[in-house]
Specification:
Radius of gyration: 33 Å
CATH architecture of the domain at 599-649 and 688-874: 3-Layer(aba) Sandwich
Largest sheet: 7 strands, mixed
Oligomer: single chain
CATH superfamily of the domain at 599-649 and 688-874: HUPs
Distance between the termini: 62 Å
Helix content: 40-55%
Strand content: 5-15%
């Protein structure tokens, strides 16, 4: 903000700047009460007029309690620093938090969608509603945003998209220049930011900051337009009845409805322009040209940007409707803070419109994905054209490679007994490395040969058709896909890669296992519908496929159940616990001889010493466990780290509390409980001093004297002793830390979680702290302000990160400085390739500061290795967990809830038992599954009925199904000869569908790995449970006497289903149920 507003409030820009334009309107909720007229209200205002209007008080002249308008609305079009400064100077103390949110949202160079309503106690009870909608709009250079931040950096990002046009220089001579966007077109980031704050629904202030520099028509009408239209529209809601004041919540919905309609239009327009550009560039000749190369390079960047903005906004609006407002199928809001609108027809109408626009944003996303496919078609076509001239050289290289391979095998035989060279024997190392490389290649070839032998037994031609993108070693679905692609390529005589890409996978029951999309075969002069019909007749009905089905321009291809069982059961059995995963993803260099694995540090849980184990720590533990598990399964070397909050001024305050309230006897009995008790007492004692300091800061008074006495002084003095490594202070701190680690280690073990390191702020080395500070000084980034050392990020193109203290005035270090130094320490110790922080989304700014500071220090290499895996809050807890203070309390509460739930269940639904071990397993499964059922950035409330019932989509129900499967297998054989199984008995519909689901686990696991969303796996598990339940129900009703071979085949299927079931559960951090 420092770089956006004038340094001096009397800056002449305030008098002469005529942009932006603004509008103010005051009104009463009761339309019968007149509002005194004001010449500066309800009309177009310049900057100077806007400033004068804000200076006028909102109270009547006869009584300070008489408010002229209890509802104030402010709209600013394209606000600049002057208008922001005017708002800042007139912001009441009670509205500071709301305005802070407004400015943070609007002035961010990387704006993010926000939609929320929350209560606040910043200056007494009140509320803040925030709505921030970033979007993209096409404009031209002459209508671009001229506002800048530091170093003349644009406030809003923009991209030149003139390259989308097809220039005549690259078209046939008789073709005129064709355009899909105006000349000098740009794609602009724009923001609509709305904030409503107040003490109650009767007294509120609404402020809207809006970008509309690219629009031909402004929301704010001139006086002539008002007269011609017989009235002014409310520029925020775009509705004429603005004088009829609505409640703040209803007003937000109306404004959101109006703005979403505009955003949908802007994004749909951009989508159409991109579509036109693809069509234009698909018509040009095959010769290579600079313009075509430029288009291929830049088009996906613009497309990805539009997808990013559109999908983020759609997800945020959908989350707002489903999780906050909780709109039911009847269109009525049922959310705790929104159900009061059920009687407001206008609000209900707006909600329905918002849902409709949310659906349209999803449709745009779908259309953009189709554009991505169309772009890939064009790119691939050009790539194939350009690659034609390379084919001869490629064949030569291939022949040389084959010859080299043969020579290397001979060399391997000659060197096999030479042994590993010594460290000083440099001359022998190249030969030894070559030997290992060839040996690894032979091992991989052996795996492929094993697969080909298996395929030969099920009646498929070998060798397996070669397609570069297929991974038949780790994903059996790719085996079917390569055989279908090979058949398809031969039938239509197209490029092999085109044939492979024309085939999509499906996980929808009854809609085929593979889908052939006829248009993607790109056959000229053939209609897709006719092509699909022709393929329907020509595709062979032999293994591994059954009879295909026609679906318009698509062809649904089903796997032969007989072939599927023959291939898949052996495939899963051979891989066992590794089925679904690809450990080569964790190799630092898959082609290297040392097979060195990449290393990832996953930091999660991270509670604070002597503080409550909050629900955010609980969710971090659950998600972090999954993240560590999936990286380990994908071949990474994982270091699980618990970074305790064991350093800082809060420890100094705890020490002051220990001197007053500490008891050695109580500490010996229950160390953590007693430390919590001490901490609560000293916090209560400290609270008046904190309030005194807060009041002084609000009144802009110096707080140095307040912070130099009382508990402030005791706290800071003890922490200074810790930083100075004084033995007495360190000894007390060490006692507290040891007790904390011991207690949590025991509780984590109950949860099934272990850590490789219990690190903490205290473990940060003085050397790394000095190294960080020296680098900041050398780069000229470190600044002194009020006797503290800090970074002013606004001076380094990171205005949204504001000021950050690294060392306080008394010389102690801040959390940010210690975190930066910890990055250096960890890299020196582990040489990590990636470091993941599993921390709540509220810490997003902190991690932005960490990575930005590393970049400013010149350590881009470290900044790029850091990833913040964020998550939303757990909003509500059942009564059994509301009093939880420690992790053990949460676990005890879960056990209590499971016991209550089991007592209420009908006995016939039981496949688990009521033993103490079983109760423990069900409780933990309920905890993990309910959390992982939701996407990370979705908040939820813990509901025992949704987590612990033996019916429905719950962790307990999943474990109950697993227990049923175990009991089924108890009466079956312990091992199987897959070569002699009666595979024909598994061709029934239920068995075939279960096989299909088992086949899809690698896709589910890889999708989860790409996004780090455990919900992928939970959805997959629920599909397994549904199908297993149906299959087992049918089995239990049949008489299997005399059908020994069929029974053995069924048990083989169930055993492999159990293995996949177990793999998925363990990936999520859940131990499968066992008696």
């Amino acid at each position: 903000m420092v770089n956006f507003i004038p340094d001096d409030p009397n800056n002449p820009r305030l008098k002469y700047a005529q942009e932006p334009r603004a509008w103010i309107f005051d009104c009463h909720l009761n339309p019968q009460i007149p509002v005194p007229s004001n010449p500066l209200h309800d009309r177009l205002l310049t900057n100077i007029e806007f400033h004068e209007a804000l200076k006028q008080e909102r109270f009547g002249s006869d009584s300070e309690q008489e408010i002229i308008g209890n509802t104030r609305r402010i709209y600013i079009s394209n606000p600049n620093g002057v208008s922001i400064l005017s708002l800042l100077r007139r912001t009441p103390a009670s509205q500071v938090e709301g305005f802070r949110k407004l400015f943070a949202n609007y002035l961010s160079p990387s704006p993010v969608p926000e939609l929320s309503l929350r209560e606040t106690d910043w200056w007494g009870p009140g509320f803040v509603i925030e709505c921030n909608l970033p979007y993209l709009a096409i404009s031209t250079q002459d209508r671009s945003d001229t506002r800048t931040l530091s170093k003349d950096k644009n406030l809003r990002a923009r991209d030149d998209i003139d390259f989308l046009n097809l220039k005549s220089s690259i078209t046939p001579r008789d073709q005129q220049q064709r355009s899909c966007v105006p000349d000098n077109a740009v794609l602009h980031v724009a923001v609509f930011s709305l904030m409503i704050t107040g003490r109650s629904e009767q007294h509120s202030t609404t402020v809207c900051l809006d970008d509309e520099f690219f629009d031909q028509e402004s929301r704010l009408m001139s006086e002539e337009e008002v007269e011609s239209l017989a009235g002014r529209e409310d520029p925020i809601t775009l509705q004429p009845e603005f004088k009829r004041a609505r409640s703040p919540r209803a007003y937000l919905l109306v404004a959101l409805e109006g703005q979403l309609e505009r955003v949908v239009d802007y994004h749909a327009n951009a989508q159409d322009r991109l579509k036109n550009s693809i069509e234009l560039y698909n018509t040009i000749p095959e010769e290579r040209s600079p313009a075509m190369d430029q288009w291929i390079k830049r088009f996906p960047l613009i497309l990805n940007k539009l997808v990013h903005f559109n999908s983020r906004l759609g997800e945020k609006v959908n989350h707002f409707l489903t999780d906050d407002v909780m709109v039911g199928s009847d269109g009525i809001p049922y959310g705790p803070l929104w159900q009061g609108l059920q009687a407001e027809l206008g609000a209900i109408k707006s909600l329905r419109a918002i849902r409709r626009y949310c659906g349209q944003l999803r449709d745009i996303n779908t259309g953009l994905e189709h554009l991505r496919e169309a772009y890939e078609d064009v790119r691939r076509k050009r790539k194939n054209d350009y690659a034609a001239e390379q084919q001869t050289r490629d064949r030569t290289i291939e022949q040389v490679t084959v010859a080299a391979f043969g020579l290397a095998i001979m060399n391997l035989i000659a060197q096999v007994y030479t042994g590993k060279p010594g460290k000083d024997d440099a001359s022998s190392w190249p030969t030894y490395i070559a030997m290992v490389v060839i040996f690894n290649a032979i091992c991989i070839s052996g795996i492929l040969c094993g697969i080909e032998t298996l395929l030969g037994k099920v009646g498929l031609d070998t060798p397996v058709p070669d397609f570069p993108d297929a991974d038949i070693v780790h994903n059996p679905q790719d085996i079917f896909r390569v055989y279908l692609a090979d058949t398809l390529q031969k039938l239509v005589n197209c490029d092999r890669l085109v044939a492979y890409d024309a085939i999509q996978t499906s996980n929808i029951t009854g809609m085929g296992d593979l889908i052939i999309v006829a248009p993607r075969l790109r056959l000229k002069g053939v209609k897709p519908e006719e092509l699909a019909k022709d393929l329907l007749q020509k595709l062979p009905r032999t293994p591994p496929f059954g009879c295909p089905l026609l679906d318009g321009i698509r062809l649904q291809v089903f796997f032969s159940p007989n072939t599927l069982s023959r291939l898949l059961l052996s495939y899963i059995s051979d891989r066992s616990s590794s089925y679904g995963y690809d450990t080569s993803l964790g190799l630092a260099d898959p082609t290297a001889s040392d097979r060195k694995r990449k290393k990832v540090i996953v930091e999660f849980s991270s509670p604070n010493m002597a503080s409550e184990f909050q629900v955010s720590h609980l969710r971090s533990t659950l998600i972090g466990t999954y993240v560590a598990n999936i990286y380990a399964n994908m071949g990474w070397d994982v270091v699980k780290m618990n970074y305790l909050g064991d350093w800082g001024k809060q420890i100094g305050l705890l020490a002051a509390g220990w001197q007053r309230f500490g008891s050695e006897d109580e500490f010996e009995k229950q160390p953590l409980c007693h430390l919590l008790e001490v901490n609560h007492k000293i916090q209560d004692l400290f609270r008046p001093e904190v309030e005194e300091c807060k009041t002084a800061k609000t009144n802009k008074q110096d707080v140095t004297e307040i912070e130099s006495r009382g508990l402030y002084a005791e706290r800071d003095a003890f922490f200074k002793k810790m930083e100075d490594n004084e033995p007495e202070a360190i000894a007390l701190w060490q006692r507290f830390r040891d007790a904390t680690v011991k207690d949590y280690t025991e509780s984590y073990a109950q949860l099934g979680v272990t850590f490789d390191e219990y690190s903490g702020e205290s473990q940060v080395s003085a050397e790394s702290i000095a190294e960080v500070e020296q680098a900041l000084k050398d780069k000229g980034i470190y600044e002194e302000h009020d006797d503290s050392l800090m970074i002013d990020f606004s001076k380094h193109d990171a205005r949204g990160l504001s000021l950050a203290v690294l060392r306080y005035r008394n010389g102690t270090t801040s959390y940010l400085l210690r975190d930066l130094a910890a990055v250096f320490d960890r890299y020196k110790k582990h040489q990590f390739d990636k470091m993941i922080y599993v921390v709540a989304m509220e810490q997003e700014m902190h991690f932005h500061r960490v990575t930005k500071t590393l970049e400013l220090m010149g350590r881009q290499d470290l900044a790029e290795r850091i990833q913040h895996v964020s998550f939303a809050k757990i909003n509500g807890l059942p009564e059994e967990l509301k009093g939880a203070k420690l992790l053990s309390d949460y676990l005890g509460g879960c056990r209590s809830m499971v016991q209550t739930s089991l007592d209420e269940e009908e006995e016939e639904t039981f496949h688990v038992d009521k033993s103490e071990k079983s109760v423990e397993q069900l409780g933990l499964a309920g905890l993990f599954i309910q959390d992982h059922y939701h996407k990370r950035n979705t908040s939820y409330a813990v509901d025992p009925k949704k987590s612990l019932s033996l019916k429905g989509e719950t962790g307990a129900a999943i474990q109950n199904c697993y227990a049923r499967l175990l009991k089924k297998l108890e009466s079956g054989p312990g091992s199987f000869d897959y070569a002699t199984l009666d595979h024909t008995s598994l061709e029934a519909e239920d068995y075939a569908e279960l096989l299909r689901i088992l086949l899809q686990y690698p896709d589910a696991a890889h999708g989860s790995f790409r996004t780090l969303e455990p919900s992928f796996i939970v959805v997959y598990l629920l599909r397994i449970v549904d199908q297993l339940t149906a299959t087992l129900d049918d089995d239990d009703e049949k008489d299997w006497s005399g059908l020994d071979t069929a029974t053995e085949a069924r048990y083989a299927l169930y055993e492999n289903a159990r293995q996949v079931f177990e793999n998925a559960l363990r990936l999520l951090g859940v131990s499968p149920w066992s008696p």
